[in-house]
Structures are given as structure tokens and as C-alpha cells.
Amino acid sequence: MDMKVVSVREGDYNLKNYDEFRENFSWDAIERNFSWYETGKVNMAYEALDRHAENPITKDKIALLYSSPEREETLTFSQLSKDSNKFANVLKKYGTEKGDRVFLFMPRSPEFYTAFFGILKVGAVAGPLFEAFMEQAVRDRLKDSEARILITTPDLLERVPQADLPDLEKIIIVGEINDNSKKYIRYAEEMKDASEEFEMEWVDLEDGMILHYTSGSTGKPKGVYHVHNAMIQHYATASWVLDLKQDDIYWCTADPGWVTGTSYGIFAPWLHGVTNVIRGGRFTPDDWYQTLEKNKVTVWYTAPTALRMLVSYGEDKLRRYNLTSLRHIMSVGEPLNPEVITWGMKAFNLRIHDTWWMTETGAQLIANIPALEIRPGSMGKPIPGIEASIVDNEGNELPPNQMGNLAIKAGWPAMMRKIWNNPSKYESYFINGWYVSGDSAYRDEDGYFWFQGRLDDVINTSGERVGPFEVESKLIEHEAVAEAGVIGKPHPERGEIIKAFITLNEGYEESPELLEDIRQFVKTGLSAHAAPREIEITDSIPKTRSGKIMRRLLKSWELGLPTGDTSTLEN
Ligand code: PRX
């Protein structure tokens, strides 16, 4: 165990005394910050946006500082509030009702955030899709969720399935198109005529707010359903973990197609009325540094993959930028290497704070809270109000320093409320009152949690969660591929890369062209981040007698490890 400690820095942190605060904590104290505490009715769009637009002190404050390689724009709370009212009126005009699923398949842009809040204002459930998805990935999600409306751009429209989606009534296009099909609604035209006044749909705390699809080790991606009640924890962690203050300029690098890009790219900063930097497009180290410098970012939430890339480009690159505004850096999504923390202390002169949570958990649960010492390699401690533990497969708690399932006592505010259309999957997460994460970890004597790995076959590549089944299913659609087994292979920068083992159909010969063709097939059919970086042709794929692919065995082969128990092996 690495017990090297990075001590606490001086700072006027929002959460000053972790132990004392945790001991006397109740969520009730947080809930009193919201108007619904009195009325019982709520809407995230009010708490994160309209409340600031109504307040004379914050209405003209910049909410959104947007930039992409092509475009720069700022929006105040008041502007964003009015624009999203307009969009809510557009949605109403086309019959959107409370509880409908309205999906967004578009890059980060001011229109994305306008539409997003418009969806919440009508009481509908927002479904953001990662812009890199290809047709199959889009189809699976729209179909499973029975989405009624989709908002997209002309560039992405060709990846939207045109058939086999009986529930999809309208497609709203942000941008110019020539097609006059009745199904298409033009965003700009509709917004021109829409009223800036809208009567918000007040909903219950337990009403649906957002649906994020994520991958498990088996089956298609699953719709993780979150409700408005999650705001309690977004609000609290924005204060304790992000340490946000009124004059901060905050930047979260995650795309809103993933949960970090909504919980911490939208809700957490805006619940506190903090100026939020949004940068569209993919990034290079220079883009990261430029965005930090130009916007004078003070609080930055990013991922180990990004930080590792900065490390590999060296301190010299960093020295070309003035990053003195930055006071707080956080990381999420993959193990944060101790070396990165050490580098960060030297290069940024700042500690990098790890945070642990998942799509299903809706908000941060374990974190290196600013007022705690950091033990590099550890994810930190559970936030106030959260009981975390290590349990065995029956849900019994294990003593310190013993490895097991990382589990959370069920019932925290931002916890998912269902898996869309899949109650049995939802139930399968819980054992003996614990939510079992699928991560293995241990806890030291002082209550710090140490991540060890995934217990299932879920792949984490550059912080993006990929289900092997989805990739395998796509691979065997290729005419040359007979069978496929997909694993995550350790990689120094990306955490893991996707490696596929395949067998070929009769009449196909191995060649570099064929392998590239298969790779492209997954890339263009599913998405770039799901395409295997390595493909190896084998004579057979190891399977159990019931036909399940033994991915663990493939992994052992790949890594030259002992193969363990193979008694269920069929072939
Ligand atoms: O394995 C853990 C890893 O990412 C998984 C959750 O992925 P996703 O639902 O896409 O959410 C990512 C961001 C909230 C977890 O089961 N993970 C997340 N944070 C960490 C992590 N692994 C190690 N250290 C972390 N801090």
C-alpha cells in the first residue's frame, strides 16, 4: 500500500472539517436551500436556471462561455432562460407531454443547452446521445427508450435511422436542410416565432429527468433513469467536492452524452449560478491549455486520460500558458495514477483530486475532498451522507484492507430510480441493502478507498465505458467474421484499449486490409470509441458449455497470466 500522503493545502474550502461535518450531517439541511422544500413541487430547470434569471443580481451574469473551433458565444442566465422557454413552447406545440423521452443527438453548442432546459421545462425526460454514435448505437437507444422527439443537426441526420422507430414522431433539425418531409421541424424557424414566456411544468421530486444509456458486460446498453431529486446531491457535491464559489469560472471537459457532462457539466455548476465553460470538439493539449488560459478557468474537472496526455507532452508545453487562474483540479472516470498527481503538484502547483462514481449513481460518492489529505492512488473517502463499504458476494461487509465489491448503502439522493424497461436488471444491482458497483476495491484503516479493477467484463477505454457484447454483436455482422470475443487490454495512456479475438468464415483469409475493413465496420456502424484497436484471428473463441464467451480466458491469454478455473470450458 502506498501511504505517501499529499498534505492539505491552505484554502478557504466550503467543506472545512470532514469528520465533524459528516457526523452531524443530514440531507434535510441541504434540501432547505430549495424552494420546493416548502411547495413540494420542483423542476431542475428552475433551480439551475430560471432562479438565477429572476434574481436581479445574477440575471445578467454569464451562464455559458461557449467556444469551439468554429464559433464563440456567451449566454447570460436571463438569455438562456428565455431561449429555453421558447424551445419549451416549440416542444409543446408538437405535443410533447410530461414524461415523454426527448433525445438530443448533437455536438455541444448553445442550442444543445437551450434545448436541454426546454425539455426539462415541459417535464419531459432528456436523453443525450454522444455525438460520435453511429446508426446502430442511435437506433438501440431511441428504440429502447421509445423516444418521441429527437433533436439533431444536418451533419448527424444520416446516422439517424429512418425506419423501425415507430415511437419517433418528429425530428427537430438545428441547421439548414433541403428535405421537406413532414417529420422534420426546423429549429431556427420555430424559435423565431416562439414566445419567451412559458409556464414551467412543476413536477415531483421522483419524476423522471434524464436517461443515460450505459454499457454492462452483457446485452445492449441500458437506460439509467434519474429523477429531479438528484439535484440535492449535485448541489451538495458542487459545494463540497468541486468547492465552487460565486465568482468561479468552471470547466468540465466531459461531453453531455455521458453522465459527467450532465451531472457536472450542467447541473452542479448551474445549481450554484456559476459561470460554466463549454468547449465543443475534440481536444489536443494545446486546446486544453488555451481554453483554461483564455477563459481564466478557476475550477477544472477532467479525466485521467487527458491528464496523462498532458504529462506525456511535458511541462514545457504547460509553461507556454498562463494558468495562474486555476485553483482546483478534479478527475473522474478511471484510476488516477499517483504519478499524475505528483506531476500535477510540480507542473500546476496544485493537487489533483480524484472522484469516484458511476452513471448509475448519478453523482459523486467517494472523493478526495479538498480539506482532506490525498493518498495518491486512493479515490478518497465517501462524501457526507454516503455510506460506502467493501462487501462479499452475499452483501456482508469485509474488514479493512480486504479486497471485495465496492458497495454503497442504497438510498442516496442521486441514485438511479430504474433501468428503463428492465426491472430485473435494476434489481440485480442490489444485495442485502447495498448497491453493488461491479468495481473491486479495498478500504484502509482510515477509511480511504482504493480502486482495484472491474469485477465484470466492462471495458474502460479513455474513461469511456464500453460493453464487450455490443462490440462482439457488431463484429459478427461483418461478412468475414464468424465469432468474436472482446476484452479490454491494459494501455499506459488510455487505461485500456479494445482488443477483439475473431474467427473467420470459410473463404476468408487473414490480411491487413481485411482487419482494417473489420475495424472500420465497427467504427462506422457503432462508434469510433467502440472500434477495436487490435484484432487477432484465432481458430476458436473459448466458450462455456452454455455458450457464453469466456472473456476472462481471452484476457489471461493476452496477458500471459494463469488461466484459472476452466472447468466450464466447452471447446
Ligand atoms: O470502473 C469505475 C470507473 O468507471 C466506472 C463507471 O463508468 P461510467 O458509468 O461511465 O461513469 C464514469 C464517470 C462517472 C466505474 O464503475 N471509474 C469511475 N471513477 C473512477 C473509476 N475508476 C477508478 N477511479 C475512479 N475515480
Automatic annotation (TrEMBL):
<protein>
    <recommendedName>
        <fullName>acetate--CoA ligase</fullName>
        <ecNumber>6.2.1.1</ecNumber>
    </recommendedName>
</protein>
<keyword id="KW-0067">ATP-binding</keyword>
<keyword id="KW-0436">Ligase</keyword>
<dbReference type="Pfam" id="PF00501">
    <property type="entry name" value="AMP-binding"/>
</dbReference>
<feature type="domain" description="AMP-dependent synthetase/ligase">
    <location>
        <begin position="58"/>
        <end position="417"/>
    </location>
</feature>
<dbReference type="GO" id="GO:0003987">
    <property type="term" value="F:acetate-CoA ligase activity"/>
</dbReference>
<dbReference type="InterPro" id="IPR000873">
    <property type="entry name" value="AMP-dep_synth/lig_dom"/>
</dbReference>
<dbReference type="InterPro" id="IPR045851">
    <property type="entry name" value="AMP-bd_C_sf"/>
</dbReference>
<dbReference type="InterPro" id="IPR042099">
    <property type="entry name" value="ANL_N_sf"/>
</dbReference>
<dbReference type="Pfam" id="PF13193">
    <property type="entry name" value="AMP-binding_C"/>
</dbReference>
<feature type="domain" description="AMP-binding enzyme C-terminal">
    <location>
        <begin position="470"/>
        <end position="548"/>
    </location>
</feature>
<keyword id="KW-0007">Acetylation</keyword>
<dbReference type="InterPro" id="IPR020845">
    <property type="entry name" value="AMP-binding_CS"/>
</dbReference>
<keyword id="KW-0547">Nucleotide-binding</keyword>
<dbReference type="InterPro" id="IPR025110">
    <property type="entry name" value="AMP-bd_C"/>
</dbReference>
